[in-house]
Specification:
Chain lengths: ~140, ~625
């Protein structure tokens, strides 16, 4: 069975990170899960691996509210990156905010694959991953 | 034939009579030789007998007009002739010429009389008459004209030369005949002068008026003297005068009723500042009776603070630099309190341009002033409230963000983990998750506590404001942070241009603590920390600055998040991201604001603006 190679979970909430990891492991659809607790760490990882497409994530689950560099700041830096040709990364914004203003802000980044409001159950994760799987 | 002065010897009486004639006469025969003359002729002409008998003299220019007449031998009567007479400036003769018929020949005779003095009288009379009136008529009581003297004939164009002997009535219009006859009767009966002004007495449809004066020179005499004078100019002038007087009376009437009944206070003021007249309205406004007021000078009523301006304005009027002025001044009421008056002053002038008196109009605007100042006060409160509300909206928005992220975030994680729990078979995994859950639960609790503090701050705006000595507080905080100060060898420099800030002391301490603590925390290892604390005034606001030479912060990156809840910007420093959030909330609660300037690697400066205005307005509420 095919698997998704790399998934990045960017969130400063340790409990959320733990739950996500459990779900991913149980679904057995992902080869490697990368954990980052703020945007800056995630951005640095991607920058360092721009020449190693195998290490680049296929999926990023991005929290909005984080220290040092939040989700929006990450996205502003991320769009500037020049990814290797043919490399597709799906980015989902995950947020606990149900505010309309945050949703509007997400629309500033049209390349986003989706805007998800926490809590996120196992089924949603399965759906997202299934979509990504090579046919 | 008579050769010389001869008198008919046959008739001695004739010679005597001729010699007694006052009129002179000279007779010539058909040949033109002088045959007779009388002594009066010599006397009138002032010539000698030999001159009279010398034909050569008569032909000389000395013979004058009479010489001419003797040669012409024409018949005429009563011609007035100017004759040159030795040693007499002017000589007029009334002369008549007549042919003399004898049996054999036709002679000629001039008789003459000196009328010079009569003509002089006549001329003076004419001069007098012409200086009196336009026309003077002498007529009988029946209206027959005896004499007509006319001046300024151009006006009346009466055929005055022919009027003598005719009836006066044929020269006047029908409508006046009866009236004129009445006037004549009145003169006869009363014996006194009668004067009337008649419009257009000659019936020529002109806007002209004549004054007709009838006098009877004597009761025995049946004549009447009528003098007629054109008074159109005077009449019209009188008419205009009457009209002007009516208008003046009208305007005086209007002024009087305005003065008496106006709701505006009006006063007439002498140029020395005495009340000349004051209307009821002004008396009522100022509370005085008319008698009390008349004893006062204006200057005793004007508020001392308004006096200089009042004097300056009156001086400008007196110097004729301006005609009117308006002002707002305080006047003393009889009870002792002052009234705000809006007034207009204008000068009434004499015909020569000097000032007769000043007219002062005044309205009590005390109430308006009060309303105006109330409105201003309300406006300030409104403005302050509006700023306050804007701050509160920002605060609420921020609280919403905290709830969305800092409460809802860990809460959703807890829910997810509870769902996951049954799937965890492994005890180690369960334990790990429980540890995480505990941290999340604690995070929720700590956020809730912070929120509680924030809400308490916002609700607790009744905290007493006291004058806080900034220097004392700063020094005290500095010593409480002694451990860090010593460790980093930090320096404090202060400059308090505003030594006291009206604020809630615990809050001011908290603000200063967080700012100084941050300055001591985010230091650069390569320089000795230097922290400056200063105060000054800027546009009515007191500003507090805490400045450091620390690591600084990239405001382009983090500016908008600097004061947000639980935001961290520097790895490796002890921070919970709550301090700046809390102090901004405090500052905003009282209507102030906080700003920051920073440069990475050089340092940061925080500026706190204390909005005193809001605080004042809150007291007013």
């Amino acid at each position: 069975m095919n698997k998704i190679k790399n998934v990045c979970v960017v969130d400063d909430d340790e409990l959320f990170q733990f739950v996500m990891r459990q779900h991913f492991e149980r679904l057995e659809l992902v080869e490697k899960i990368h954990k980052f607790t703020d945007g800056e760490q995630a951005l640095n990882y991607i920058k360092q691996n721009l020449n190693k497409p195998d290490n680049l994530p296929d999926l990023i689950l991005l929290d909005v509210n984080m220290p040092y560099m939040d989700g929006w700041q990450f996205l502003r830096e991320y769009v500037k990156l020049s990814l290797p040709a043919g490399k597709q990364i799906k980015v989902y914004v995950l947020t606990s905010s149900t505010h309309e203003s945050d949703l509007q802000r997400a629309k500033e980044f049209p390349f986003l694959a989706g805007y998800l409001v926490k809590p996120i159950g196992k089924n949603i994760i399965k759906e997202i991953l299934t979509e990504l799987l090579p046919a | 034939m008579v050769q010389s002065k001869t008198f008919n010897p046959a008739n001695q009486w004739y010679g005597a009579i001729a010699a007694a004639f006052e009129d002179g006469y000279i007779a010539t025969n058909q040949a033109g030789q002088i045959v007779a003359f009388n002594p009066s002729a010599l006397e009138i002409l002032r010539i000698s007998e030999s001159q009279m008998l010398d034909p050569g003299w008569w032909e000389s220019p000395s013979a004058g007009a009479l010489g001419q007449l003797l040669r012409e031998r024409k018949e005429f009567s009563d011609h007035k002739v100017r004759q040159d007479v030795p040693n007499k400036k002017d000589c007029w003769l009334r002369v008549s010429g007549k042919a003399l018929h004898t049996q054999t020949e036709t002679g000629y005779m001039l008789t003459f009389r000196d009328v010079t003095s009569y003509l002089e009288v006549n001329r003076s009379l004419n001069t007098i008459i012409s200086s009196l009136d336009d026309i003077i008529l002498e007529m009988t009581v029946n209206g027959t004209l005896l004499h007509v003297w006319m001046n300024r004939t151009s006006r009346l164009t009466l055929p005055w030369m022919e009027m003598q002997g005719k009836s006066v009535y044929q020269y006047m219009p029908e409508r006046l005949i009866m009236e004129f006859q009445h006037l004549i009767r009145e003169v006869i009966i009363s014996g006194k002068e009668v004067v009337r002004v008649l419009q257009d007495p000659l019936g020529r449809n002109q806007q002209v008026w004549y004054r007709i004066r009838l006098v009877r020179p004597g009761t025995t005499n049946n004549t009447i003297i009528v003098s007629i004078h054109d008074v159109t100019a005077e009449y019209k002038a009188n008419e205009e005068l009457r009209e002007a007087r009516t208008q003046l009376e009208d305007s005086q009437q209007v002024f009087k009723s305005v003065f008496d009944y106006s709701p505006t206070g009006i006063a007439l003021l002498s140029i020395t500042g005495q009340w000349l007249d004051v209307n009821a309205s002004l008396l009522e406004t100022l509370g005085y009776t008319r008698d009390e007021m008349s004893g006062l000078s204006v200057s005793t009523l004007i508020h001392p603070d308004d006096m200089d301006k009042a004097k300056a304005q009156i001086a400008q009027i007196l110097d004729r630099k301006i005609n009117t002025y308006r002002a707002e001044r305080r006047y003393k009421h009889r009870d002792g309190h002052y009234i705000y008056m809006f007034l207009a002053c204008s000068a009434m002038l004499n015909p020569d341009g000097s000032i007769r008196y000043l007219i002062l109009q005044m309205i009590d605007v005390t109430e308006l002033k009060q309303l105006d100042s109330d409105a201003r006060k309300k406006n300030i409160i409104l403005h302050a409230t509006s700023i306050d509300l804007q701050q509160k909206i920002k605060q609420l928005f921020e609280l919403n963000q905290i709830i969305a992220h800092n409460l809802r975030g860990p809460a959703t994680a807890l829910i997810s983990s509870v769902e996951l729990l049954p799937e965890l078979a492994n005890m180690e995994e369960q334990q790990e998750m429980l540890d995480h859950m505990k941290i999340s639960a604690n995070a929720i609790l700590s956020t809730l506590n912070d929120l509680k503090d924030v809400l308490a701050q916002q609700a607790n705006t009744e905290l007493p404001f006291t004058p806080c000595n900034v220097e004392a507080i700063t020094k005290q905080l500095w010593s409480s942070l002694n451990q860090q100060v010593v460790e980093k060898n930090a320096q404090l420099k202060v400059n308090f241009r505003e030594s006291s800030i009206e604020y809630s002391r615990p809050y001011l301490e908290n603000i200063l603590f967080h700012l100084i603590n941050n300055a001591l925390t985010y230091t650069r290892p390569d320089v000795l920390p230097e922290i400056r604390v200063e105060t000054w005034k800027e546009d009515d606001q007191i500003v507090l600055m805490v400045s450091d030479n620390g690591i600084g912060i990239d405001l382009q990156k983090h500016g908008e998040q600097l004061f947000r809840y639980k935001k961290k910007f520097h790895r490796g420093y002890e921070s919970n991201g709550v301090g700046l959030f809390m102090i901004r909330n405090q500052i905003r609660t009282f209507g102030g604001s906080i700003d920051v300037k920073s440069e990475v690697g050089k340092g940061s400066s925080f500026f706190v603006y204390f909005n005193n205005r809001v605080h004042i307005s809150k007291d007013d509420e």
